[in-house]
Structure formats: structure tokens, C-alpha cells
Amino acid sequence: MITLHNYVLRELLKTFVLSVIAMTALFTIGGGVFNVVRYEGVGAAEVFTILPMLIPIFVTFTLPLAALFAVTMVYGRLAADNELVACRAAGINVHRLFASTILLSVFVALFSLVFVNYVIPGMIGQVRLFVRSNVRGIAEQSLRTKGYIAWTRGHGQLFVTAPRAVSNFDPGALRASGWDPKLDYLKVDSPTFLQLTDDGEVERLTTAEYAWVQFDSTKDPVQVFATGKNARDFQVGNHLAHVEEQYFGPRDIVLPFPNNTGFLSLTALLETLVYPWKFDDIADAVDTLRELLLRYHLREYCRTRVESGAPIHLVDGDGRQYYISAATLDAVERGRVQLMEVRVTCDEDDPALPSEYSAPLARVELVGRDQEPRVYQLQVRLMETEETPVTTAHPGSTTYQTARTKTELTIGDLNVPDDVMATLALCTPAALLDPAVDLGVDEPRISEKRAELQDEAVALQREIRSLLHFRFGFGLSALVTILMGAVLGVMFRGNRALAAFGLAAIPFGIAMLLMIMGRQTAEKAGTEILGASIIWGGLIGLAIADCVMIRVGVKR
After folding, report:
1. How far from 414 is each of 7, 319, 367, CA to CA, in Å?
2. Of 112, 217, 353, 412, which residue is 20 to 30 A from 361 by alpha carbon distance?
3. Ramachandran sector of residue 526 (left: φ over 0; alpha: ψ -120 to 50; beta: rest)
4. At what angle do helices 99-114 and 44-80 cross, to 10 degrees?
């Protein structure tokens, strides 16, 4: 019996391996690479570099079909050669010969699960990293082969045409001129910049003697910026102008394989499911909401201090203490705090610097530094009115014996008060996403933003759960579809092998269709359970059909 199992398994593996190679090559050479890359201007060198990263993706999806084809052919030939009849005559239970099929289906299922959940996301990450690091080369290849580069933007499109591009210049010369060594540069001769509106109408046309195009791959998304030298610029509605330099950008470059849940590994998906605020889109929304809360609590802190008659206490980066007294407080646009009849005192010991300020009007503004994590500071803008200027003084100072007047004065680099930061610290991402947590904030804009954030997080979690059902359903579908192919091969007895394979592909297609339908249904609010039921109910139905067909169609 072991010899018989080894014989069947050997035939299966031989046909299976050949089928995998043939189908993978067919899908790859037939345009699969270019459909996956989806980026204009990719040359042959880039394709052959990316190809080893893409082959595992193609293999994962060709594996079930190759296994289906292999079992249909092998078991059909066994039945056509009456080898199954010989096994029955020898007293062997023919159903036991399907052990090789089950073993192959388990291998395909495990392979698919591992690759879909771990290998493919990793390979896609490598492809994205390769494309990000070769944006300049892709743009240069597009310019040389197609004659133009196209960059989209939020409200139109920019086309760049040029007869020649130069990338083999001396980077040391650029750095000596103060250019950033972290950026990639491309020089184009005699470029033409054509800027279109959303409706495809010409908005701007610029020609130049030459232009420098710089690519910043340190940002996400990648940004491009162009500088045209000795340019002639024509803008619709204006006259033709000659300018020494004309700037375009920065513009975002949309790369293939965007950062979405479909390209996350199983570990990352489970982590995002538990902590949705770690996903980029949700993280950005959380930061926006926390900034609104910071502005709100800052305004309330200032209001409480002013109404109680206590000064607003602020400290700058050097440790100077500022005490701001005001008669009244008004809230203005974007959460800025406006104070009326302001007096500021500072513990400044240096007589060459002022220690007292007065102004009829002042604004306390929140300033965010562009860094990760984002750091916020305050600045106080003292402003004059028609009747009263801004004054600065330092009692006992020879420099400021007489108060000086100014039209406007800014006191910057002030730290956010500790009381405000302590209140904001309670507004953690988990608290913001939990509807049961009361933030104690009564402001419609913040409540609306929080509700939108919670809806986005819930939708993301539904999407992740539906994706998990789809991935595991796709992997485990091999257990039922491959077995059905073997049964159909026996039933057709090999005389119509291709017909048997085509018929076996129908349940496979039905399984894929049900999983896609189930995933889309599970992503919608209120139908999540229905979507999961479609996926697993379809697989259970195919498993029952396998049992019935083995029982009825294959005699023991």
C-alpha cells in the first residue's frame, strides 16, 4: 500500500510542479508584471529587478489551479488505465488512494496561508521600497521612452516634455552649491511644462532653457519639485513673461502598492485590529483631533485664569517666567485666544532686555513644529490699535528708562502650560475611540470630529476582520476544491481530461466568487456576520458536495 501511495504521490508532484512553472511563467510573461507594477516608465532593468519579488505573488495564486489541474490529470489517467479497477480487485479501498490528494491540498493550503499572510506583504513592501528609491530612474526612463513625464495633483495634471535628460552629473558639485544630498536630482534640457485643469484645459505653459527636477523620497508620499531656468511663462489670462527661474511643485507622486490593509502581514493586521489608531489614516485623524482638544483646553485654561483675575503663567525654553494679565478674553478663529488690555511681566534680569510689555490686544497662538512626534509651543502676539501702541519697558534699566513703542511684538518659544498638557494626556487614542469615555468637552466641532474618527476606526476593524476571513478562506479552500478535482477526474475516466479540469474549475471559481462577495459584504455595517457566513458557508457546502461525490461517484 505504501508503494501505491508513493506512486500516486510521485505522479501528482511531477505534474503539479510542471503546472506551477508553466502557469507562473504564463501569467508573468503575459503581462502580469506590468499589471502589478502599474507605473508608467518602468524599464526592462527595473522589471527584472522587481521580478524576483513578484514571483512569490504569482506562485501563490497559481498554486491552487496547478494542484487542481494535477489531480484531475493524474486521477483521470488512473481511472482510464483501469488501475482503480485493479486496486478494487486486489481488495484495496479506492477511497484510500485520495490520501495523496489530501496531502497535496494540505500543502497548498498551508503554503497559501503563509504566503498570503506573511511573504506577499513583505515582498510588496520590498517592491514599494525599490520603487521609492528609484523614482528618478523611473521618471528618466519615462522621459526617454515616451517623451514626457506626467504628475497628478489635487486640482489638475502637469506634463513635462524634454528632448534629453541628464542624470550622470557630479553630485559633489550640487552639494557644494548647497543642494540637499538626501534628494535625487535630474537635469532636463529645453523642457516644456504643460499644466492642465481638472477639465483638461490648458492652465499654464512654460518653456525653459533647462530645468532641475528634484525627488524627495524621504517623505511619504514621494514629492517632486522642478525649477526651470531662463523660462518663458504663459498663464491663461496673462501676458507672456520672461523669468529667470520658474518653480513647479512640490507635487505628490502616487506609487504602486499603496499603504492599505490588504498589504499588511497577519501580525500587523491583528495589531491594527486591537490598536486601530496605529494605522496611518487613523493616526492622522487622531493627531488632528488631539490638536483640536489642545486648542480647546488651552482656551479654557486662559479663560479660567482671566475670569478669576489670576495671570496666565507661561515659561519659555530658557526658563523665563511670563505672567500675562488681561481684562477680557475672546475666542477667535482656529482656536486662537484673543486678550484685551494686556500686560505682560517677565523675570528678565538683563537690563538690556525688556521685562514689561503692554498692549491693547494680544493673541495666544499654538504653533506646531514639523517633527515626529509633533511638538507644540505657544507664541504671544502683542498688537497695537489705532489709539494705543505696544510698549516695552524694564524698570531700573538705563536702556529702557523711557518705554519704547512698537506696532507689533511676538514672544515665542513658550511651553504649553503643564495643566493643559496633563488634561490632554488623559485624551489617549484609546479614550478618543471609546464612545463610553466622556471627554468633558462641549464643543460641536470636536464632537463631530470624534464621531467621524470612531466611525473610521470601526470601519477599519470591519475591513480587517473581513480580510482575515478572506485570507483564511482562500487558503483553506484548497482542501475542498482540489479534492473535488480528483473526484471529477475519476468520474470522467481521463477520456475528457480537459473537460474534467474545466468542470473542476467551476467550484473553484464559485469559491473565489463567494469569498470576494463575502468580504465585500462583511465590510459593510450591519452585514458583517452575513459576509462571514457567505465565505464559510460556501466552503462547508463544497465540503459536503465532496463527500457526496466521493460516496456516489467513486466506488470503493
Report:
1. 80, 9, 10
2. 353
3. left
4. 160
- Give me the sign of the Cα torsion angle 432, 436, 440, 443: positive
- pTM confidence score: 0.81
Return the closest-CA partner of residue 391 out of 380, 402, 399: 402
What is the DSSP secondary-structure string of 291-326? HHHHHHHHHHHHHHHHHHTPPEEEEBTT--EEEEE-
The residues, any chain, with a CB within 8 Å of residue 537's CB and separated by 6 or more, are: 514
User: What share of residues in the chain are helix, strand, coil (percent, to 5)?
Assistant: 55, 25, 25
101: left (phi over 0), alpha (psi -120 to 50) or beta: alpha
Three-class SS of residue 237? Answer: coil
Where in the chain are the domains? 2-133+477-553, 146-253, 284-444
Question: Each residue's pLDDT tens digit in the chain (556 positions)?
Answer: 677 778 888 889 999 999 998 888 877 765 555 554 544 455 556 666 777 777 888 888 899 999 999 988 888 888 777 777 787 777 777 778 888 889 999 999 999 999 999 998 888 888 778 878 788 877 887 787 777 887 765 556 788 888 888 766 666 666 666 777 778 888 888 888 888 877 777 888 889 988 888 888 877 778 888 888 888 888 776 667 788 888 887 777 766 666 688 888 999 999 999 999 999 889 989 999 999 999 999 999 999 999 998 999 999 988 889 999 998 887 665 557 889 999 999 988 777 778 889 999 999 988 876 556 678 889 999 999 888 999 988 887 776 667 788 889 999 889 999 999 999 999 999 999 999 999 888 888 899 999 999 999 999 999 999 999 999 999 999 999 998 888 888 887 756 667 778 888 888 889 999 999 999 999 999 999 999 999 999 999 999 998 888 887 776 6
Task: Give 385: exposed, middle or buried? Use CB within 10 Å, 0-12, 13-18, 19+.
Answer: exposed
